[in-house]
Write a structure and sequence with these properties.
rod-shaped, 1 helix, 2 domains, four-stranded antiparallel β-sheet, SH3 type barrels
């Protein structure tokens, strides 16, 4: 039974060769801990496990291939890209407000009655009209009450449009966006 070819790393550990790149210039090797790395094929001396035990030769430093792996390190920097300034100032505006108000007026009407009464009459209400009797005693052969007149008070309601100018206060916000001063050393540079 033949084992797959292997190489040795700087510590003398065996690295199994898993595959070769399509152009044949790189080898994918697997370490004993299961991690993998790509190495240049022209810098690797490959052997099988059989051939290394049969040869009985010690490994010299020239047969040891250092495995190099590139790693990506990502870092972030904060760069000021703009400035926002808010300015708040009071604003006054004039508006005309239309409201409907209610006014009450009273019409007073004097109605002559001149009628004799049996007894006093109370103030009474007929719809929106209040009737106030005005009585006096008059001399007759016998003394009786005579209704001389009634005063009729009628309440009327009318809607009167009313305009008034009022001042309302508010606030306005202005937003300004400014780019920061960029110095040559602060600018992004691409390789």
């Amino acid at each position: 039974m033949q084992e797959s070819p292997f190489v040795l790393d700087a510590e003398g550990s065996k690295l199994a060769i898993r595959t070769r790149s399509a152009d044949g210039n790189w080898l994918l090797v697997q370490r004993e801990d299961g991690t993998e790395a790509w190495v240049e094929a022209n810098k690797v001396i490959t052997e099988t496990a059989e051939s290394s035990t049969q040869s009985g030769q010690d490994r010299s430093p020239s047969n040891v291939i250092p495995i190099v792996e590139e790693r990506l390190v990502i870092d972030r920097e904060v760069h000021e890209t703009g400035v926002v300034r808010l300015t708040k100032s009071p604003v006054e505006r004039t508006e005309t407000v239309r409201v409907t108000t209610v006014e009450e007026t009273v019409d007073v009407e004097r109605v002559p009655v001149n009628r004799l009464l049996e007894g006093p009459i109370e103030v009474r209400q007929e719809g929106d009209t209040t009737i106030v009797p005005v009585m006096e005693e008059v001399a007759v052969v016998e003394k009786r009450l005579m209704l001389r007149e009634e005063i009729r008070i009628t309440r009327k309601r009318t809607n009167v449009p009313h305009e008034e100018t009022v001042t309302l206060r508010g606030e306005e916000v202005v937003v300004e966006r400014n780019k920061p001063d960029v110095h040559e050393e602060d600018q992004w540079q691409t390789p």
